[in-house]
Amino acid sequence: MKLVQCTSTGQDGWLGLRQALWPEGVPAEHIAEMQFFLDHPGRFFQLVAYEGDNQPAGFVEAALRGDYVNGTDSSLVAFLEGLYVAPGYRRMGIGTLLIAAVIAWAKACHCTELASDALLDNEGSQAMHRALGFTETERVVFFRKLIP
Ligand SMILES: CC(C)(COP(=O)(O)OP(=O)(O)OC[C@H]1O[C@@H](n2cnc3c(N)ncnc32)[C@H](O)[C@@H]1OP(=O)(O)O)[C@@H](O)C(=O)NCCC(=O)NCCS
Questions:
Q1: CA 140 to CA 20: how far, in whole Å?
Q2: Residue 145 lies in a domain
Q3: Residue 120 covered by a domain
């Protein structure tokens, strides 16, 4: 297994893995967002994990957040923005290694907290967070109202 930091939007597997995690976005939207991250390397960190013969197996994206992050006490907080391991590569420790790399990056950025979130029905993700030492802080409900 090898972890590679993304340095271009053409990083092998990055777009495809992103689309698998967030299928609602069209490729152009993904690429614009990826380019924004690359243009702000002090704020964003992204890695692709490769297995075997350079098969893209997973990715992680993290950011430094200066606005309030639910359940945290410090600022800047490192936030796990996206984490995905392709189904054939799960339960092999890849998610663990991707998060370990994010923690090393966050430490280098002088952060003392790594925050994250998961949908209420995503029990696999919640189990992984707990297994890796995250503690649950808050549950929130989002609302919106259209303004005519
Ligand atoms: C969540 C996800 C990233 C985990 O990646 P992974 O590489 O399989 O995780 P790891 O192999 O490092 O798992 C570490 C530990 O977390 C726990 N864990 C991971 N996935 C789990 C699951 N589906 N159910 C229960 N526990 C789980 C286990 O304790 C596991 O250790 P073990 O395999 O020795 O029992 C992966 O399942 C995934 O991409 N899911 C879909 C996308 C997603 O939910 N992303 C997170 C959004 S917040």
A1: 25
A2: no
A3: yes
How many folded domains does the chain comprise? 1
- pTM over 0.85? The answer is yes
Q: Which atom of ligand 1 is nearest to the CA of 58?
A: 39
Asked if the structure places residue 59 within a domain, the reply is yes
Q: CATH number of the domain that 22 lies in?
A: 3.40.630.30
Q: For residue 114, is it within any domain?
A: yes
Bond preceding residue 76 cis, omega within 30 of 0:
yes
Q: Is the CB of 105 under 6 A from ligand 1?
A: no
Which pLDDT does position 8 carry in this prediction?
Answer: 98
Q: Is 130 in the pocket of ligand 1 (CB under 6 A)?
A: no
Give residue-wise pLDDT tens across range 99-121: 999 999 999 999 999 999 999 99
* pLDDT value for 54: 97
Handedness of CA 71, 76, 82, 83 (dihedral sign): negative
